[in-house]
């Protein structure tokens, strides 16, 4: 009697193509309700079994539930899931077993005699139902692996993902005796395998979505932190430096620069973040007549250029030559717009030691960094202009104070000048009196001479006192005048700086 069944599940577990050549004749398919209670106890329990599968959140729990279900329903000695690791390796990731038999959960099996050709057959739905492993014609080394865990009969059903890739095998072992697997049992296991596939797919989709959401959230945190640093800049040069620093940190590329556009064929590298192995290009003035400045309007409107390989990007030869001079193999370009959307320059990322296929999320992050660099630059420029205006107003206030002080000093000068003028009038009168007296003395040398001489002496003393007064007044006038001149000179200097 042939001892192996070969069953190919094509579209579902309810449509079976049975090849009976060289295999035992399969018993007619039974409905689940026709299976004896002591063989396959399924009625309302069947529905509850698959409801239970939906409650598990992890693949490990789902697979474990699957093997426990077929173990309990089929009443076999062991049910396991083999997860394929490679063509000749598999790992047992779920197991339900009768006490007393060897546990295999977690075991990685290298089965070099596993027929690689069968992988494709299993992927297409091959099912193996072996009543007696010693009469099945399986490879001796595979037979040896089954003997180690006391297997006498086994049933192998593939677990095929929805993309038709093979996840692994759902395998039932009978160890206590030989067993002829019924078609209804096989159909049930196929249905369990289908349910496992559906649940694994849903769980993988959920895990993928959770992973994507986590990546988005993590990326947003990184972007938020980078944007905060960019907007913490207080000067335009600091805003640009923060932009290139944060962009290189996020992209993990070799160099990021800000290319400030100066005219239609020239620009300057005004900020740079680079790995130490690259020669700095900060401050370089690049004259690039072959740069397609017809793209400037597009950049101003938000154009992003991504070039994984500059040699295959369709650039002009001279533009490629300029990039090669600074070691560029791949680059990414985003505009930095400011002042009501006017373009300031370009934020450019360079990959120099290898080619880089810029990913969509990297391009989006780079675009955000360029946008916020432009905002920060605009704010810094406004702040710098405000500071210049405030400084100018402060100088004007100082000039005003200096002029007021100069006027006060000039007023102080007028008082001693007026006082000196009065003294000079008094001196002039005394001089006239003295001159008259001297004339009289010359004309008359009578006894009055002594008296007149005394009068002259008095006048002379008076003149001495008056002269002293004049000297002090002149000193005051001189020093006050010098001080006024200094103040006025300072005011003039402030006006020149303005």
Explain what you see.
- With 498 residues, this protein is α+β, with helices and mostly antiparallel strands.
- It contains 10 helices and 14 strands.
- The longest helix has 84 residues, at 360-443.
- The chain folds into 3 domains: 4-206, Beta-Lactamase, CATH 3.30.450; 230-382, Beta-Lactamase; 386-497.
- Helices cover 52% and strands 19% of the residues.
Entry keywords:
Beta-Lactamase; 6-stranded antiparallel β-sheet; 3 domains; rod-shaped; single chain; disordered N terminus; 498 residues; 10 helices; alpha+beta
Q: Could you say what the CATH topology of the largest domain is called?
A: Beta-Lactamase
Which strand order do you get reading across the main beta sheet? 2-1-6-7-8-3-4-5
**CATH classification class of the largest domain:** Alpha Beta
Task: Tell me the CATH superfamily of the largest domain.
Answer: GAF domain
The largest sheet, given as strand count, sense and whether it forms a barrel, is: 8 strands, antiparallel
| H/E series | EEHHEEEHEHEEHHEEEHEHEEHH
Terminal Cα separation, in Å? 112 Å
Overall number of domains: 3
Rg: 51 Å
Helix content: 40-55%
CATH architecture of the largest domain, please?
2-Layer Sandwich
Low-confidence stretches: 1-43
């Amino acid at each position: 009697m042939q001892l192996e069944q070969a069953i190919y599940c094509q579209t579902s577990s309810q449509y079976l193509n049975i090849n009976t050549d060289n295999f035992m004749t399969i018993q007619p398919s039974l409905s689940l309700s026709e299976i004896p209670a002591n063989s396959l106890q399924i009625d309302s329990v069947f529905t509850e079994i698959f409801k239970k599968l939906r409650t598990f959140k992890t693949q490990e729990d789902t697979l474990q539930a699957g093997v426990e279900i077929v173990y309990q329903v089929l009443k076999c000695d062991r049910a396991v899931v083999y997860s394929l690791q490679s063509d000749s390796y598999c790992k047992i990731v779920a197991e339900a077993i009768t006490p007393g038999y060897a546990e295999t959960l977690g075991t990685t099996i290298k089965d070099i005699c596993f027929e690689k050709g069968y992988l494709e057959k299993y992927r297409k739905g091959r099912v193996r139902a072996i009543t007696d492993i010693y009469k099945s014609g399986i490879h001796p080394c595979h037979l040896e692996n089954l003997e180690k865990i006391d297997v006498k009969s086994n049933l192998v059903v593939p677990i095929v993902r929805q993309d038709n890739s093979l996840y692994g095998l759902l395998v039932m072992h009978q160890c206590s005796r030989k067993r002829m697997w019924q078609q209804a049992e096989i159909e049930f296991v196929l249905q369990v395998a289908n349910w496992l596939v559906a649940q694994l797919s849903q769980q993988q989709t959920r895990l993928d979505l959770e992973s994507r959401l986590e990546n988005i959230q993590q990326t947003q945190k990184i972007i938020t932190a980078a944007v905060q640093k960019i907007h913490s800049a207080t000067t335009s040069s600091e805003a640009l430096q923060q932009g290139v620093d944060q962009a290189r940190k996020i992209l993990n590329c070799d160099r990021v620069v800000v290319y400030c556009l100066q005219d239609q064929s020239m620009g300057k590298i005004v900020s740079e973040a680079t790995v130490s192995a690259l020669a700095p290009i900060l401050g370089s003035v690049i004259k690039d007549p072959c740069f397609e400045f017809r793209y400037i309007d597009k950049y101003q409107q938000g154009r992003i250029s991504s070039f994984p390989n500059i040699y295959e990007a369709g650039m002009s030869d001279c533009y490629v030559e300029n990039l090669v001079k600074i070691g560029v193999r791949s680059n990414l370009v985003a505009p930095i717009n400011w002042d009501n959307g006017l373009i300031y320059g370009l934020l450019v990322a360079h990959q120099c030691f290898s080619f880089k296929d810029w990913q969509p999320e990297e391009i989006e992050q780079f675009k955000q960094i360029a946008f916020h660099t432009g905002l920060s630059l605009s704010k810094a420029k406004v702040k710098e202009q405000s500071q210049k205006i405030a400084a100018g107003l402060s100088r004007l206030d100082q000039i005003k104070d200096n002029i007021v002080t100069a006027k006060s000093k000039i007023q102080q000068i007028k008082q001693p000048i007026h006082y000196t003028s009065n003294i000079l009038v008094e001196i002039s009168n005394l001089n006239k009196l003295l001159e008259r007296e001297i004339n009289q003395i010359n004309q008359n040398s009578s006894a009055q001479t002594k008296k007149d001489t005394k009068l002259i002496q008095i006048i002379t003393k008076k003149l001495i006192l008056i002269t002293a007064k004049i000297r002090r007044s002149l000193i005051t006038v001189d020093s006050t005048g010098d001080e006024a001149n200094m103040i006025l000179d300072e005011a003039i200097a402030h006006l020149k700086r303005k």
